[in-house]
Design goal:
With 469 residues, the chain is of the alpha/beta class. It folds into two domains: 170 residues, Rossmann fold (3-Layer(aba) Sandwich), CATH 3.40.50; 252 residues, N-(1-d-carboxylethyl)-l-norvaline Dehydrogenase, domain 2 (Orthogonal Bundle), CATH 1.10.1040.10. The chain is 57% helix and 8% strand. It has a seven-stranded mixed β-sheet, sandwiched between helices. Helix 1 links the parallel strand 1 and strand 2. Helix 9 packs antiparallel against helix 10, helix 12 crosses helix 13 and helix 15 packs across helix 19. The longest helix is centred in the last third of the chain and has 35 residues.
């Protein structure tokens, strides 16, 4: 073992696979985990590679070249703080600590400021791709001081996913920019997953399609405009049989979706920044409702939600074409919401985000990669300060192309027992964003009536109040 160029604290699936990726790309790597079995597994899987496992933190640091680079892939929150505190005792000025977990961006800002008082560098790095992506090439979103990123840039470029030989990594911006971008990435991921779940539900319950047929539909979509990782894996999971019952695995999975909190963080951040992200909010809400299985079961006994809708003339093929169009529109709206949040956050927090670069590095390795991201990249290359993707000529044309079908599919959700909160919210977001005069004038009048909150007029400048409502 030569002197390692990077040390990893946390050898769970993500940490171990990322460290093996590092070693396979020619960098010396060392790892440490409280669970010694994980260190043994690292050595077993990394046989023949320049990789080692340390028995404790001091031993890990002794194996690293100076100034040392230590990455953490441990659970976000208190555990991350505990490990950082232990490292501050062992590290020396000039050493660099990288948090590669899903940390809240405000925690990242706090940690960077704290470590600066110790003379230690800090990067908050978003990593997307799951355990497979960590091993074969993830999308990497680093934030912090640019000169610290430049120290690890060759390593990150080597291990990142590649699209047309372009590494899916780029410097995001100052302080917590990397973790903020990753948080919004996860919010978009929530939305896209919920949209596909609703499409699946409509096909299964309203169109009465078996899982195998739905899988073929998703596979077909993945060969057209909806080409994406999430559509691809939706087809794959629907084809998988349960080894116990022989039924589709999805049929045997309890309908309560888990979450680690990043979707909710995205929603709260958007509220704080005054940005509308209703489709991401809807996806978070549906996961919360799904977790209330007992309550749903009781409520279902109280309501008759009606019959399944009658298909439009043209039969199943026409309904599937319309559904594909609706999903495409909802995907564009979800990306638009996330990108607008990034644009506003970049201005508010002075991150200096490059949205074209963000779209570029999301095209490979990450969970929300899709063909649409090429169009999104081109939109921001043409106009870096684009306030919404709805104003890009190509993407607005794409929305216009699907709008009629999207409306019809939304009526199918409304007229049936199948909930379509994400697909419908994306449509109404699009309609609201394209409505020149909204009924907010009534709301302002109401606010002035009960709270004297004042209002602006359409015919003259200034602030006004009506005394005698």
């Amino acid at each position: 073992m030569t002197t390692a160029e990077i040390g990893m604290v946390g050898l769970g699936t993500m940490g171990r696979n990322l460290l093996l990726n590092v070693a396979e790309n020619g960098f010396g790597a060392a790892g440490y985990d409280l669970d010694v079995r994980k260190g043994a597994l690292l050595l077993e899987e990394g046989r023949g590679l320049d990789v080692s496992a340390a028995e404790n933190l001091p031993a890990l640091l002794s194996q690293l070249a100076t100034p040392r680079t230590i990455m953490l892939l441990v659970p976000a929150g208190g555990i991350t703080d505990t490990v950082i505190e232990e490292l501050t005792v062992l590290c020396e000025p000039g050493d660099l600590i990288i948090d590669g977990g899903n940390s809240h961006y405000l925690d990242t800002d706090r940690r960077e400021a704290y470590l600066a008082t110790k003379g230690l560098g800090f990067l908050g790095v978003g990593i997307s791709g799951g355990e497979k992506g960590a091993r074969t090439g993830p999308s990497i979103m680093p934030g912090g001081r640019r000169e610290l990123y430049q120290r690890v840039e060759p390593l990150f470029r080597a291990i990142a996913a590649k699209v047309h030989d372009e590494p899916c990594v780029a410097y995001m911006g100052t302080r917590s920019a990397g973790h903020f971008v990753k948080m919004v990435h996860n919010g978009i991921e929530y939305a896209m997953m919920q949209i596909l779940a609703e499409a699946f539900d409509l096909m299964n319950r309203a169109f009465r399609m078996p899982y195998e047929r739905i899988a073929r539909v998703f596979a077909d979509w993945n060969n057209r405009e909806l080409e994406s990782y999430l559509v691809e894996i939706s087809a794959a999971v629907l084809m998988k049989e349960d080894y116990i019952t022989g039924q589709p695995v999805v049929e045997m999975i309890l309908d309560t979706a888990g979450q680690k909190g990043t979707g909710g963080w995205t929603s709260r951040s958007a509220l704080d920044l005054g940005v509308a992200i209703p489709t991401i909010d809807a996806a978070v809400t549906m996961r919360q409702i799904s977790a209330q299985k007992h309550l749903r079961r009781m409520t279902a006994e109280r309501f008759d939600l009606g019959d399944m809708p009658r298909m439009r003339d043209g039969g199943l093929d026409e309904n599937l074409r319309e559904l594909e169009a609706a999903v495409r529109g909802a995907f564009i709206a979800s990306y638009a919401q996330g990108m607008t949040l990034l644009q506003v956050a970049s201005q508010e927090f002075e991150y200096g985000l490059n949205l074209a670069e963000i779209a570029r590095i999301w095209r490979g390795g990450c969970i929300i990669r899709s063909a649409l991201l090429t169009d999104i990249r081109e939109a921001f290359e043409a106009q870096p300060d684009l306030p919404t993707l709805m104003l890009d000529p190509d993407l607005s044309r794409q929305i216009g192309d699907v709008l009629e079908d999207w409306r019809y599919v939304t009526t199918q959700f409304v007229e049936s027992p199948v909930p379509g909160m994400a697909i419908a919210s994306a449509l109404f977001y699009t309609k609201a964003a394209a409505t020149e005069r909204l009924p907010a004038n009534l709301i302002q009048a109401q606010r002035d009536y009960f709270g004297a909150h004042t209002y602006q007029r359409t015919d003259k400048d200034g602030v006004f109040h009506t005394d005698d409502w």
